[in-house]
Design brief:
The protein has 358 residues and is of the alpha/beta class. It is built from twelve helices and twelve strands. This is dTDP-glucose 4,6-dehydratase.
């Protein structure tokens, strides 16, 4: 049985990845989920699989080198999928220190623990061990409105403390590949959306606010462009990179779904009206008059767009979920899981974990 160590598995993308892996492999794999349960980590995301005999949760900070090494020492880890990171740009502007600590130092701790556990006395590595570092397209900076795409060869040009910290962690992984021949890959993905996303992010925030008749805040002129990737497509790509990717390579994962932020909000409003029952009183609250333009974010990148040509050519992955269908699935999920959203927005989930793990 192959054993996966997943960091940040209680977060949005990490939890979706764990669900995907169990759907695909069932009892053929074991997953150890390591998460510090910060504000963005929620074990409710994994309620359906928490009692599986081949699933283990460990509450730990990836910056705790002793604890991380202990996990490696006590388990024969075959794969590491490193999601754990501070990821909200606004929070990085207010408090960059925690982003540098978690995203840079935490990645270094993970690399050192895996290297120590997997390395043979001659400097080679035990067979079939692989480390995958999950990163972002934001490390590449900003594209012009006129066109162009991010490729794996695009020079790094981060513009926020968040993207700078992720760029730094990418370079650490690259350095371990080059210096120690460490068996790793890096993936840089575009904006994800789907179930279990923390409601400070654009799509769940707009869904939640619209259902309550609250303002829908949009930065600047609303014309910043992002490439949107359905989270299950991302999970599939990560699995394929680990199994089919060439070690040492970077793979860009994009959705071919470029949209302006204002377009996203308008699509959400239209889709809510499409899927809500005719007798649902919240239909009366949903209006484009709720859209409110606010001062632009500092260092706000204008446009992101990934060209996933390499991963398609080398591995055979391509995005399967077009935005029109993906956003409908996402909205239906949030409508079916209103208790989950309520527990997130009122903070009850954190109170529960504080009591459980005090």
């Amino acid at each position: 049985m192959r054993t996966y160590l997943v960091t940040g598995g209680a977060g949005f993308i990490g939890s979706n990845y764990i669900h995907y892996m169990f759907r695909k492999y069932g009892d053929q794999i074991k997953i150890i989920n390591v998460d510090a349960l910060t504000y963005a980590g929620n074990l409710e995301n994994l309620k359906e699989i928490e009692n599986r005999s081949n699933y283990v949760f460990i509450k730990a900070d990836i910056c705790d080198s002793n604890k991380i090494q202990e996990i490696f020492d006590n388990n024969d880890i075959d794969r590491v999928v490193h999601f754990a990171a501070e990821s909200h740009v606004d929070r990085s502007i207010r408090n960059p220190d925690i982003f540098v600590k978690t995203n840079v130092l935490g990645t270094l701790v993970m690399l050192n623990a895996a290297k120590c556990s997997w390395e043979n006395s001659d400097g080679s590595y035990k067979s079939d061990k692989k480390f995958l570092h999950v990163s972002t397209d934001e490390v590449y900076g900003s594209l012009s409105d006129e066109g162009g795409y991010f490729y794996e060869t695009t020079a790094y040009d981060p513009h926020s403390p968040y993207s700078a910290s992720k760029a730094s962690s990418d370079f650490l992984v690259k350095s371990y590949v080059d210096t120690y021949n460490f068996p790793a890959n890096i993936t840089n993905c575009s904006n994800n959306y789907g179930p279990y996303q923390f409601p400070e992010k654009l799509i769940p925030l707009m869904i939640n606010n619209a259902l309550q008749g609250k303002q829908l805040p949009i930065y600047g002129d609303g014309k910043n462009v992002r490439d949107w990737l359905y989270v299950e497509d991302h999970a599939k790509a990560i699995d394929m990179v680990q199994e089919l990717g060439k070690l040492g390579e970077t793979y860009n994962i994009g959705g071919h779904n470029e949209k302006q932020n204002i377009e996203i909000v308008e699509i959400i409003l239209d889709t809510l009206l499409d899927v809500l029952p005719e007798n649902d009183q919240r239909r009366k609250l949903i209006s484009k008059d709720l859209i409110t333009y606010i001062s632009d974010r500092k260092g706000h990148d204008r446009r992101y767009a990934i060209a996933p040509d390499k991963i398609k050519k080398d591995i055979g992955w391509f995005p399967e979920t077009m935005f029109k269908e993906g956003i409908k699935q996402t909205i239906r999920w949030y409508l079916d899981h209103e208790d989950w959203m309520s527990n997130i927005t009122n903070g009850d989930y954190q109170k529960y974990y504080e009591e459980m793990y005090k």
